[in-house]
C-alpha cells in the first residue's frame, strides 16, 4: 500500500488579499498533510521592520529605497519551527521578530517596501529555494503567478474589504493593540490598492488558480474545501 511518504509531493500556492484568512488556511493545511508552511508576507514584513529600525523610513513615511537596497545583503530571514504556541516564528538576522512584524507600524509600511523590485527579487529567490523539494505550502500575493508558476495547486482567496478589516481588527484587539476599526479598514483598502497596482508582480489571480470567496465560510468549511482540492491533486 502507498504510505504518506510515497505520495506525490506538490507545491500549493495560496494567494489573495490581505486578511483574507489565507495564512490560517495554509498553516492548517500544512499541519494536516505534513508539509512545510512558508508565510511569504512575513518575509516582506521582516524587511520592513529592518527598514524601520534602521531609520530607512522618513517622517513623511517614505522608504529610503537606495539605502534599503544597499542593505539587502545584510538582511537574513529564516523561520523557526512552530513552538508551544503552534505558530512558526519569523527570524530577522537570527532574532525572533514574530511579535513585531504584525503591528500597525509595519502593516502601514509593508506595501511600499514590497513594491521595490530589488526587494521582490531577493525574496522571490529565497522563496523558490524553500520549494526546491516540493512538499510546501506558501501563501502570499504572487506565489502562483511569479514564485511558483508551475505549482500543482493554486488557490486565490478573496472576501470583501469590510469583512477582512473586521477580522484583522478582532485579531489586533485580541493581541491587546489599541486600534480603531476605521484605521484598520483604511489600511486594508490602501494595501489592496498598492498590492494590485504595483508594477512588479501585482496581486492577481493566476489563470489556473481556483478562486475561493470565503466571506461566508467557517474555518472548518474552508479547510474541508482545501483538503478536497489537495487530495484531488495528490491522487
Ligand atoms: O500577507 P500579509 O498581509 O502579511 O503581507 C504583507 C504585505 O506584504 C502585503 O501588503 C503585500 C506584501 N506581499 C507581497 O507583496 N508579496 C507576497 N508574496 C506576500 C506579501
Describe it:
The chain is α/β, with parallel strands linked by helices. The strands form 2 sheets. A 5-stranded parallel sheet has the order 2-6-1-7-8. Strands 3-4-5 form a 3-stranded antiparallel sheet, with helices on one face. The longest helix has 17 residues. Helix 5 runs parallel beside helix 9 and helix 8 crosses helix 9. It starts with 10 loop residues before the first strand and ends with a helix. It is globular, with a radius of gyration of 17 Å. A hairpin with a 2-residue loop joins strand 4 and strand 5. It is built from 10 helices and 8 strands. The structure holds 2'-deoxycytidine-5'-monophosphate.
Order of helices and strands: EHEHHEEEHHHEHEHHEH
Main sheet: which strands, in order across?
Answer: 2-6-1-7-8
Structural class: alpha/beta
Write down how many β-strands occur, each being a DSSP E stretch of 2 or more residues: 8
The CA-CA distance between the termini, in Å, is: 14 Å
How much helix, percentage-wise, in residues?
Answer: 40-55%
What percentage of amino acids are in beta strands? 5-15%
Query: Which radius of gyration do the C-alpha atoms yield?
Result: 17 Å
Which ligands are bound?
A: 2'-deoxycytidine-5'-monophosphate
Contiguous low-pLDDT stretches (5 residues minimum) are: none
Task: Give the averaged pLDDT, no decimals.
Answer: 92
> Biggest sheet, open or closed, and with what strands and sense?
5 strands, parallel
**Number of helical segments with 4 or more residues:** 10
Shape: globular
Amino acid at each position: 500500500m502507498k504510505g504518506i511518504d510515497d505520495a506525490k509531493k506538490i507545491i500549493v500556492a495560496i494567494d489573495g488579499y490581505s486578511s483574507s484568512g489565507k495564512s490560517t488556511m495554509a498553516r492548517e493545511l500544512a499541519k494536516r498533510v505534513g508539509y512545510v508552511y512558508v508565510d511569504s508576507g512575513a518575509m516582506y514584513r521582516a524587511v520592513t521592520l529592518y527598514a524601520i529600525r534602521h531609520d530607512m523610513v522618513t517622517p513623511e513615511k517614505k522608504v529610503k529605497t537606495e539605502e534599503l537596497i544597499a542593505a539587502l545583503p545584510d538582511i537574513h530571514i529564516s523561520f523557526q519551527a512552530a513552538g508551544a504556541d503552534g505558530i512558526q516564528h519569523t527570524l530577522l538576522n537570527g532574532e525572533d521578530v514574530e511579535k513585531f512584524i504584525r503591528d500597525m507600524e509595519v502593516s502601514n509600511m509593508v506595501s511600499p517596501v514590497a513594491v521595490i523590485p530589488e526587494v521582490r527579487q531577493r525574496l522571490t529567490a529565497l522563496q523558490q529555494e524553500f520549494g526546491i523539494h516540493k512538499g510546501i505550502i506558501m501563501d502570499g500575493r504572487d506565489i502562483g503567478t511569479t514564485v511558483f508558476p508551475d505549482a500543482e495547486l493554486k488557490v486565490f482567496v478573496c472576501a470583501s474589504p469590510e469583512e477582512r478589516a473586521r477580522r484583522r481588527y478582532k485579531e489586533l484587539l485580541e493581541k491587546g493593540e489599541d486600534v480603531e476599526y476605521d484605521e484598520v479598514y483604511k489600511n486594508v483598502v490602501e494595501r489592496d490598492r498598492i498590492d494590485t497596482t504595483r508594477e512588479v508582480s501585482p496581486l492577481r489571480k493566476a489563470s489556473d488558480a481556483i478562486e475561493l470567496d470565503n466571506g461566508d465560510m467557517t474555518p472548518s468549511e474552508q479547510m474541508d474545501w482545501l483538503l478536497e482540492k489537495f487530495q484531488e491533486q495528490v491522487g
